[in-house]
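sanity check this record:

:::
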Amino acid sequence: MTALEDSTLDSGRLSRGRTYARQGMVGAVTIAPGQVKAAVQGSRPRPYRSAVHLPVLTDPQWDTLLDTIAARAGHRAALLDNEMPAELVDDARHAGVPLLPLPTELDPECSCPDWGYPCKHAAALCYAIAATIDTDPFVLFALRGRGREEVFAQLRARRTAALETAAPPAPAGTPAAAAYARWAEEPPELPELPEPTAHTTALPLAPPPGTGLAAADLERLMAHATARAARLLAGDTADLHLTQYQDAVRIAASNPGPEWFHHLIQNTGTKPTAFARLTRAWRHGGPTGITVAEQPYAPDPTVMKAARTALDAALAEMTDSPTHLRTWRNRLTLTHHGIQLRLGPDARWYPFLQNDDGEWWPAAPADSDPVTALTSAWSQNGE
């Protein structure tokens, strides 16, 4: 309001404008870059259309202002609390940016017949907007050309850039997976691996309270990590690139107990039956078993035809009843016996049995021979 008061010599109009504002004569205010508008009720029945214009800041001025805000954490904290710190106004002024309007910047406009500059209606609008700025400093930012979201987005960008500049350069190196793959191509001579032993050393400290972890949980995870490391050293890379979901299934397949199994189901958001089915798939086929259980694909037709021929010949010896093999993508289904063989991407056949609910469950380990896989499922099905 200092800018308004310094821009006029007519204290009477300012006084009446302040009274209008306090009496609620200013209607809904519309704020846009460089201007604020509102209908102001005067002595006549129809309100007047009042507006106040002021220049928006230039891009270089905005850069200076944002740098000024970013330089002090107190400025950012105050703005987050919807407060306009007086120090920010002073810092901006010292940096050459007039955040608060100067007396020469205000340009009032009104549809009333009063030739005052400003008239009491425009003055009322100025008092009303000043009160609004007291509760929401971003009204002033919007008048100067940029809204709340844009201001905070640019402040975050400056903070990120500052952190990246201050952070030490990342050390040069090779990702662990790539380093292991390179080592696996030409492994050095290593001594024989010792027999794995159970982890018996207690953790030196209990897990932090409130984490939901127990010492027994962490010790079990340590034992899992040790076993995986031993398999990697032996050249088994099957579970090197598991997703978090697949790793949960891997842990469940190691029989961690009902409590762990329940937590794994909860944390993966999977239905218990589906999770149990994938756990069995892992036990019979590892990561590939999960892929076979979840993802059908279109294999080489000649492979499917050869397998079907072999199975037809085997079934002719296994039963006198007529059989019908139905082919769909990588699956051969013995429709009236609840048996299905699925060809995996590893060229092995995975046997499945159908339960009473019509769902297919992994039945036995995979085999490269479809007849052997059929025999495994056939014997389990009581045929």
